[in-house]
Every structure is written in C-alpha cells, then in structure tokens.
Amino acid sequence: MLKAAQAAVDEINGAGGPLGRPIKLITEDDQTDPEAAVRAARKLVDVDKVPAVLGTWASGVTIAVAPITQAAKVVEMSTSGASRITEVQKNGYVYRTEPDDLLFGKAYAALALKRGWKKAGVLGLNVPFTTSTVAAFKQRFEEGGGKVLNFVTYNPDATSFKAETIQAFEGQPDFIHISGYEPDVTGVLRAAYEAGLKAPFVIPSFAVSEETIANLGPAAEGLIMVAEGVDEKSAGFKTIQKLFPENSYQPHPAQVYDMLNLVALAIEASKDATGSGIDKGLRAVSGPPGTAVGSFAEGAKLLRGGQEIDYQGASGPIDFDENGNIVKASLRIAEVKDGKIVPVEMLEDVVF
Fold first, then answer.
1. CA 352 to CA 346: how far, in whole Å?
2. What CATH number corresponds to the domain at position 224?
3. How far apart are CA 73 and CA 263, in angstroms?
4. Strand runs (DSSP E) across the chain, as ranges?
5. Which residue in 27, 124, 249, 278 is deepest, having the highest Cβ count within 10 Å?
6. What total of structural domains would you count in the chain?
7. 145 contacts 117 by C-beta, under 8 angstroms
8. Is 110 a member of any domain?
9. What is the pLDDT along the chain (352 residues), one digit of tens a residue?
10. Residue 220 sits in which domain range?
11. Is 44 part of any domain?
C-alpha cells in the first residue's frame, strides 16, 4: 500500500501537483493496532498538520482514528470494511474505498450457493468486521437454502487454533469460511491440515499472501479467496502492474493509489488544500456527471479548463454515497493452484 501511495505521489508531482504545488507524503505505522494508530494520527494531525490521513486498514484502527480527524476537519480515507464505520462516517470527513462488509458477506453466500454448497462452518476473529460480515453471509446463505452449522470465534491473541478448527468441522460442512486476518487464517489452515480435516476454505484475499502460501505448502492448495476487483483497463492499474507484476490483483494497493489521486484532484477542483477543501471536492471529482479520467494529469487539465470530471480508478469506479461509502463493486474470485494465486471468475456489480 505504501509503495502504491508513493507511486501515485510521484506521478502527481511529475504532472505539476494540485494547484501547481507538490504533494508531500508523511508516513506513520499504525501497527494494525488502535492504540498505536491513535498516537500516529495525533502526530500527523497535531504536529505535521496534514489535511488528509489515508490508508487506515483494519476497521478497529479506522474507528479509533476517525474522531481525531473529524474533530480537526481532516479527511480520512480507509480500506476498512466494518459496517459500524458507516455510523462514524455520518459525522463527516471519513470516506472508504473498501466495500462494506455486508457486501462481502453477501458475496461469500452467492459464491457458495453458485457452487451448490448447502452446509457451512464459520471461523471468525473477534473483531468488528467479522460480526457484520458473518451476519450478512448467514442471512443471504440461509435465504438461498443453505445452513450455517456453527460460528466459532477466537481472540486476536490466540496462538493455537486446533480446538476451534475441529469445532468448525462438526456436522461435516461443505465448506469453511474464515473471517480473519493473515496470522490467524494461517494458523487455522495449518491446524486443519495437521488434523487431516479437509473442506474448501473461503477467505478474504487480504488474509493471505504469496509468501504465506509458499510457507503453508499443501495446506494452502485449493484455498478460495474473495477480493474487490481491479479495473484492468484503467491507467492506474498499469502502474500497479509495474509495481507488483506477480501480484497486481490485490485490491488495497490499487485503492490507496486511487486515494492519492482523488485527494489531489479534490484540491484542484476546490482550489483549497485544507481538509475542508478536500472534503468539498471529493464527490465532485469521483462520480458522474463528468468526463471519465484515469489520472491526475488528465483530470487536472480538464478541471483547469472549467470542465467536470469522473475519476475512474485502478480499483474501479469510485462513486461515494452520502456517507462516503462506494455504492457498488465487482468482486474477484481466485484459487490457489500449484502454489499460485489464479483468478477464476468475477461476481459483477455487487450492489449494497
């Protein structure tokens, strides 16, 4: 994500920058921990005086940081999915390029029903995004004739997942959905393999990397991942491909790349580089009406000529609703085959 952000900054500044001024990227590590994130946000807002904080990922981090940015009228843009964030967004200044977890839950159910699976076991990390994702999954799956046999939760500091994994397999589910992050998902997959428990595993794509797949070996084979799609035809995606030729379909680098471009275009549109100016300009440059553009250089030229624009990003069209959520997304399904992540199908235009 950081590499993608820097690539976007380089392109924007190479085109002269918004209002003819360069963007400066200041980075802090939130450690995927709300307390560390609050300290980082305080420094960025109070010391560095930034007008925008971009790239918060874990939902707990975004929820912790939002009051700080909102009080200072600083824009925050996240790749977090928890539905609770919508309530936070109603206070303004918070946007996200990540689909709401309700959409992901529906997508997991749609995929399972499409493959003819009727019985599900669910393992979930005890964090905000899991609650909303699993609730939406269960509702849609059972509406389609499926049944969730069990929902087993575990804590973020867990070091062994054997007991929980065995419990999730009770009743012989057709598949297991894991709602978690990379360390715990890795632990579950390893525990299942060591216990000889076999079933298709369906997980969010952010919960596994190629390095992890290589380390897991046969325990990762057949793993099914659901991710936001990327727009392979967009100008921004070409930049992402150059940065990550072996893994360009991961959505979060593309989303952060788009955040930087949107902020720069919002400054150009509002003629104001403050948080309030960015907040004012974001919807004006991110949705219809307007000429479709795929880069800051292209959009800035039209804005300076008095025209409206509609930014089409590396992660797809980014049209914000009144709360700052994107209104639709296409989701990519991939599987691990011979140790490689292979895209296999798309769930097109999943709508909230």
1. 17
2. 3.40.50.2300
3. 14
4. 52-56, 75-78, 94-96, 119-125, 147-154, 175-179, 201-204, 224-228, 291-293, 309-313, 316-317, 328-337, 340-351
5. 278
6. 1
7. no
8. yes
9. 999 999 999 999 999 999 999 999 999 999 999 999 999 999 999 999 999 999 998 889 999 999 999 999 999 999 998 888 999 999 999 999 998 888 889 889 999 999 999 999 999 998 877 888 899 999 999 999 999 999 999 987 888 999 999 999 999 999 999 999 899 999 999 999 999 999 999 999 889 888 889 999 999 999 999 988 788 889 999 999 999 887 787 889 999 999 999 999 999 999 999 999 999 999 999 989 999 999 999 999 999 999 999 999 999 889 999 999 998 777 889 999 999 888 888 876 554 4
10. 101-229+329-351
11. no
d(CA 314, CA 334): 18
Pairing between strand 75-78 and 52-56? Answer: parallel
Domain-located, residue 219: yes
Name the residue among 336, 31, 338 with its Cα closest to residue 186.
Answer: 336
Report residue 343 as tokens. Answer: 């895209």
Amino acid residing at 29: D
Judge whether 130 lies within some domain: yes
Which tokens hold the place of 204? 């969010």
Query: Which residue do the tokens 């669910």 mark?
Result: 122
Output phi, psi for 23, to 5 deg.
-85, 140
Token pair for 67: 């009051």
Q: How far from 31 is each of 34, 38, 253, 346, CA to CA, in Å?
A: 8, 11, 17, 32
C-alpha 258/C-alpha 296 separation (Å) is 10
- What pTM was computed for the model? 0.79
